[in-house]
C-alpha cells in the first residue's frame, strides 16, 4: 500500500513540477486559486479522522478539520468563479 | 502489496485524474472549468472515503460539512472582489491548520489509525514521521498565510538565510519528535514551523503577493501529502503532490534569482 501511494505521489509531483515550471507569471492568481482548492483535499483526511477516531478529543479535531476543509473547498470554488469573471464597470 | 478493493481503486483513480485535469485547465480562460473539476474530484474522493471506512459519527460529519460549506459560500459571495486574494490566503492557512489538527488527532489516538508497533506498543517510526511532517508543513502554511494577510500588498523582501535556518530547525524538530514522540516536541515543531513559514513567505513577497501565495499553497499541499501517508489515501497523495510541487516550484521560480526574467518560454502551456 505504501509503495502504491509513493508511486502515485511521485507521479503527481512530476506532473505538478511540469505545471509549476511552465506557468507564466501572469497566471499567478489562477494558479493560487487552483492550489487553494487542491489543498482543501485535507477534508478527506479530516473525514477519515472523524470516522475512525475513538477518543472524543481526536474526533473533535477531525470535525474541526472537516469544517475548515469544507469552508476552503466551497469558498475557493466561489472565489475561483468570481476571479474568472471580468469585473463589472 | 495487499489486494485492494477495485471500487476504491477506481474511485481513487477517477479522483486523481480529475485533480490532474484541474491543474491542466488553461489558466485565465479555464479557471472555472478547473474549479468544477476539483469539486467533482473532491466529491468522488469523499464518497470513496465514506464507502471504505466504518463511519461512526455520520450525523456530526454531515453537520460539519454543511456548516463549513455555508461559511465558505458566505465568505466567497459576500466579500468584495478586491478582498478575494486575502480570502484565498486565509483559506490556504485554514487548510494548513486543518493538517495540524489531523496530525494532533493521529498523535492523540494512534491505535485507531494503526500507528502503534505491535511489539513495543510505541508510535511506529513511519507514523511519527508522517505526523511530524504533516504538522510542520501545516504550521508553515498557516504562518505564511498569516504573514500575507498581515502585510497585505506591502512588498518587502525577507532574508533567505534566516528562512533557510528556520527551515533546517523545523527539520531538526521533526527528527527529534520522531525519536521521542512527546507533545512538547510536537508543539516545538509547530512553533518553529510557524516562524519558518513566516520567513519563507516574507522572502517570497519580494516579487509580489502571487508567488508568495503560490509558495504557501505549496506548503499546504505538502501537508496534505504527509497526511495522505498517515491515512493511506491515494487521492490525497495525488492532490498534495500536485499542489506541493506546482506551488513550490512556481513560487521558487519567481522568488529566486531569476525573478520575473527568463520566463519567455512560459507562454507554452502544459
Can you give a write-up of this model?
The complex is a heterodimer of chains A (89) and B (270). Chain A is an all-alpha fold and 89 residues long. Chain A is built from 4 helices and no strands. Chain A has helices at residues 2-22, 28-39, 42-52, 56-84. Chain A is flat, with a radius of gyration of 17 Å. Chain A starts with a helix and ends in a 5-residue tail after the last helix. The mean pLDDT of chain A is 88. Chain B is mostly helical. In chain B, 74% of the residues lie in helices and 0% in strands. The chains are: A mainly alpha (89), B mainly alpha (270).
Labels describing this entry:
heterodimer; A: about 90 residues; mainly alpha; 4 helices; about 80% helix; B: about 270 residues; 2 domains; 9 helices; about 0% strand; disordered C terminus
Mean pLDDT of chain A: 88
Distance between the termini of chain A: 54 Å
Largest pleated sheet of chain A: none
Kindly name the structural category of chain B: mainly alpha
N/C terminus separation of chain B = 33 Å
Classify the helix fraction of chain A into a percent range. over 70%
Tell me the layout of helices and strands.
The complex is a heterodimer of chains A (89) and B (270).
Chain A: H1 2-22, H2 28-39, H3 42-52, H4 56-84
Chain B: H1 6-24, H2 31-52, H3 58-78, H4 84-108, H5 125-151, H6 160-179, H7 183-204, H8 209-231, H9 234-255
Tell me briefly what this model is.
With 89 residues, chain A is mainly alpha-helical. In chain A, 82% of the residues lie in helices and 0% in strands. Chain A has helices spanning 2-22, 28-39, 42-52, 56-84.
Amino acid at each position: 500500500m505504501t509503495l502504491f501511494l509513493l508511486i502515485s505521489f511521485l507521479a503527481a509531483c512530476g506532473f505538478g513540477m511540469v505545471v509549476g515550471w511552465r506557468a507564466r507569471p501572469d497566471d499567478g492568481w489562477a494558479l493560487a486559486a487552483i492550489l487553494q482548492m487542491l489543498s482543501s483535499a485535507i477534508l478527506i483526511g479530516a473525514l477519515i479522522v472523524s470516522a475512525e477516531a475513538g477518543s472524543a478529543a481526536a474526533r473533535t479535531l477531525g470535525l474541526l478539520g472537516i469544517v475548515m476543509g469544507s469552508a476552503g473547498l466551497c469558498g475557493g470554488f466561489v472565489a475561483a468563479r468570481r476571479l474568472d469573471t471580468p469585473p463589472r464597470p | 502489496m495487499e489486494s485492494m478493493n477495485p471500487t476504491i481503486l477506481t474511485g481513487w483513480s477517477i479522483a486523481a485524474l480529475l485533480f490532474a485535469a484541474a491543474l491542466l485547465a488553461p489558466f485565465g480562460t479555464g479557471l472555472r472549468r478547473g474549479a468544477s473539476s476539483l469539486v467533482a474530484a473532491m466529491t468522488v474522493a469523499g464518497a470513496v472515503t465514506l464507502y471504505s471506512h466504518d463511519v461512526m459519527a455520520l450525523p456530526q460529519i454531515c453537520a460539519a460539512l454543511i456548516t463549513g460549506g455555508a461559511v465558505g459560500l458566505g465568505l466567497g459571495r459576500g466579500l468584495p472582489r478586491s478582498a478575494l486574494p486575502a480570502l484565498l490566503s486565509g483559506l490556504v492557512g485554514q487548510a494548513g491548520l486543518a493538517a495540524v489538527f489531523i496530525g494532533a488527532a493521529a498523535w492523540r489516538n494512534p491505535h485507531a489509525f494503526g500507528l502503534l508497533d505491535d511489539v513495543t506498543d510505541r508510535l511506529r517510526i513511519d507514523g511519527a514521521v508522517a505526523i511530524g511532517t504533516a504538522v510542520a508543513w501545516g504550521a508553515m502554511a498557516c504562518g505564511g498565510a498569516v504573514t500575507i494577510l498581515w502585510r497585505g500588498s506591502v512588498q518587502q523582501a525577507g532574508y533567505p538565510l534566516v528562512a533557510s535556518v528556520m527551515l533546517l530547525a523545523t527539520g531538526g524538530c521533526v527528527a527529534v519528535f520522531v525519536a521521542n514522540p512527546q507533545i512538547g516536541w510536537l508543539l516545538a515543531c509547530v512553533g518553529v514551523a510557524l516562524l519558518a513559514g513566516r520567513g519563507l513567505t516574507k522572502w517570497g513577497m519580494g516579487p509580489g503577493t502571487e508567488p508568495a501565495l503560490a509558495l504557501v499553497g505549496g506548503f499546504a499541499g505538502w501537508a496534505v501529502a504527509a497526511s495522505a501517508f498517515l491515512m493511506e489515501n491515494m487521492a490525497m497523495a495525488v492532490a498534495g503532490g500536485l499542489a506541493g510541487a506546482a506551488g513550490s516550484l512556481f513560487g521558487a521560480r519567481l522568488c529566486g534569482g531569476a525573478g520575473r526574467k527568463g520566463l519567455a518560454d512560459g507562454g507554452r502551456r502544459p
